[in-house]
Design a protein that fits this description.
The protein has about 300 residues and is α/β, with parallel strands linked by helices. The chain has a single domain, classed as Inosine-uridine Nucleoside N-ribohydrolase, Chain A (Alpha-Beta Complex). The protein has twelve helices and twelve strands. It has an eight-stranded mixed beta sheet, sandwiched between helices. β1, α1 and β2 form a beta-alpha-beta unit. The longest helix is centred in the last third of the chain and has 19 residues. The protein is globular. The protein starts with a strand and ends with a helix. The protein binds alpha-D-ribofuranose and calcium ion (CA). Alpha-D-ribofuranose (RIB) binds next to α1, α6 and α11. Calcium ion binds next to α1.
Length: about 300
Amino acid sequence: MPKPIIIDCDPGHDDAIALLLAFAKPELVKVLAVTIVAGNQTLEKTVLNALKVLSFAGVECEVAAGYDRPLLRTLEIAPEVHGESGLDGPILPEPNFKASIKHGVQTIIDHVRTSKEKVTLVPTGPLTNIGAALLGAPDIKENIERIVLMGGAAREGNWTPAAEFNILVDPEAASVVFQSGIPITMVGLDVTHEAQIMASDVEFLLNSGKKVGVMVGELLEFFGEFHKTMGFAGMPLHDPLAMATVLEPTIVETKHLPVRIETQGQYTTGRTVVDFYGVTGEKPNVDVALAVDRDRFVQMILDAMLSYN
Ligand code: RIB
Ligand code: CA
């Protein structure tokens, strides 16, 4: 029976590939809705990007715009990574369907409240929508199976030395989520930086003769530019690894650890503070991904992208 999921994202090159991965596996997951948050780019752009990518792949589903800014802070975007459009690289046609008129947060609440099976939330952007849904409708916790999120890092950050982008953009929302008591799998930079797709894989996609495969190759070519400047050999597929972890949980190895979110530090705001040695005495609240089967992951991505006609 496919697992009911809601994807909350900020497309974003890697978000786009995570969406395509999910819709390539209907035997494993049923996407109840795709909700959108501001993050990599402004909300207007992240919504349009989601609609464009899904339309290009021949997928139509409920897409609902959520928050255009963090709960308390001003929005920080990442044009240096994702470009002015938030999805620079391929030229994508205008979408062939529109976003829902319902707010993304209400969409999450309504689907979780009415789902006959517990829902898995898969956030791959800042946690504003998820945090707001939990604050606005705490009852939904009872019908959430797990939150498998791309965010955080037990070790080094990527947007500051201490913090990963998704958590840094809205640390208050992240704190609401991490302290919610809901089972959480944190797919952070510790594993996504290992889950790199290489130039040879991109060439394979570009030469596949399949339109979605070629388009993903073009996305990765652009996405790789920024990561070259950071000294990466390839392109870390952050969000697709969170989605892959929903599809095949054994693709990562996790440790159940206490994790809290720093919201005050001058140099450390946005840090996921992981207590490896139990020195805080806090109860473990997060399954932290610390190792990944990279080859199996990359093969899953390539197969999924080429499964589209
Ligand atoms: O730090 C990586 C995360 O930030 C990814 O989700 C990427 O899409 C950006 O949102
Ligand atoms: Ca993202």
